[in-house]
Design brief:
Distance between the termini: 54 Å
Structural class: alpha/beta
Protein name: Bacterial extracellular solute-binding protein
Largest sheet: 9 strands, mixed
Order of helices and strands: HEHEHEHEHEHHHEHEHEHHHHHEH
Radius of gyration: 21 Å
Oligomer: single chain
Number of domains: 2
CATH superfamily of the largest domain: Periplasmic binding protein-like II
InterPro entries: SBP
Number of helices: 16
Helix content: 40-55%
CATH class of the largest domain: Alpha Beta
CATH architecture of the largest domain: 3-Layer(aba) Sandwich
Keywords: Signal
Number of strands: 9
């Protein structure tokens, strides 16, 4: 298949990187719809443009395999997709190669926080409130509605664990998103969040895989769920009558990191540079509704797409409707995940959460 014009232009900017290395460049990602989108937008076009074979492998985000590769000096993965907390942890442990910010080609065009010491932002994703529009007569608008079992009777689904749920609990209890982490860092704030979750405990169905919320909602097993926005968008594309509430969603950036000691580090850096261009980012977001980190791709995303306007968006016309987490209107009303807070406090918070919700 010939390269499309945007990727043809990219190809002209990539040096000849094919080498005598017999092994392809290996990019570890989280699989599923995300992995398929990366194959279309990043891996195949990069291979065509650079003549460096690149393949994806699926992993669950745990840093254990990366640690083992680095410690044994048998590095089989070159680039890994990591969440922000794992990037922070892996960088401190020396598992990733550093990035020179001055040598990342599009630094000035990437969202704030995209270029870190050991990683470059791959895309933005959000954990949102999702519901089945065909089931609920009144649409929920907030986490307070998620907790309101009288107005919205039925089960709710939440990801099993403290992360995100403690933040949602505080926002449901009236805490503004700007104050969530400062309050959660205190004992009274933590107790308040846990008490709020206790209120909802009889109505919670716990999920562990991102594929579960759309299925639970479609089957009417729950009336609302926390969910990854990309999973909901993918289900909607397949015909599901699901909707997303962006107010007080939690957004985070997944990063590209290069495994320390990769024998293909040069090719790996070329891949990261390629995958963070506006053309590649836009192609990725066309496949799955995770947000580009490149501003040009964000601005181009809705060109030619049918926009769906509901009465919630009519409240503030500056919030142009979009299913992208990095769309300005969605970022504006979302809470940015704090990886430093969770790396420092995650273990004890998970224990307190587990003990409180036994």
């Amino acid at each position: 298949m010939p390269l499309s014009r945007p990727f043809l232009l990219l190809a002209l900017t990539i040096p000849a990187l094919a080498s005598a290395q017999s092994q392809p460049l290996v990019v570890a990602n989280f699989g599923g719809a995300n992995g398929k989108a990366q194959e279309v937008a990043f891996l195949k076009p990069f291979t065509q443009a650079s003549k460096v074979p690149a393949k994806g492998v699926e992993y669950d985000g745990d840093l254990g395999p990366v640690r083992k590769m680095v410690q044994t000096r048998k590095v089989e993965w070159d680039v890994v997709e990591v969440e922000s907390s794992e990037l922070t942890t892996g960088c401190k442990e020396g598992l990733f190669e550093p990035f020179d910010k001055s040598k990342v080609p599009h630094t000035s065009m990437l969202l704030a926080g995209s270029v870190q010491e050991c990683g470059v932002g791959a895309f933005v994703w959000s954990t949102v409130l999702a519901y089945n529009g065909a089931t609920l007569k009144t649409a929920p608008r907030s986490w307070a509605d998620f907790w309101d079992v009288k107005k919205f009777p039925g089960k709710r689904a939440m990801r099993k664990g403290a992360r995100y749920n403690l933040e949602f609990a505080l926002m449901a209890d009236g805490v503004h998103r700007r104050d969530v982490y400062s309050l959660l860092a205190t004992e009274p704030g933590l107790q308040r969040a846990l008490a709020k979750l206790q209120q909802l405990k009889p109505h919670i169905v716990w999920w562990e895989s991102g594929s579960q919320p759309p299925k639970l909602l479609a089957a009417d097993e729950v009336v609302m769920s926390t969910a990854y926005n990309g999973r909901i968008s993918a289900a909607v594309a397949d015909g599901a009558t699901l909707s997303t509430v962006w107010t007080d969603a939690i957004y985070d950036i997944d990063y590209w990191a290069i495994v320390k000691g990769s024998p293909r580090a040069e090719q790996a850096r070329a891949f990261v540079n390629f995958a963070t261009t506006d053309a590649a980012q836009l192609a990725f977001s066309r496949e799955i509704a995770y947000g580009p980190t490149h501003y040009n791709a964000i601005l181009q995303y809705d060109n030619g797409r049918k926009r769906v306007i509901d009465d919630a968006h009519l409240i503030d016309l500056s919030m142009a409707p979009s299913d992208l987490p990095s769309a300005p209107g969605n970022l504006r009303r979302s809470l940015g995940f704090n990886p430093t807070f969770w790396v420092g406090n995650g273990a004890q918070l998970e224990k307190r959460f587990a003990d409180a919700l036994k």
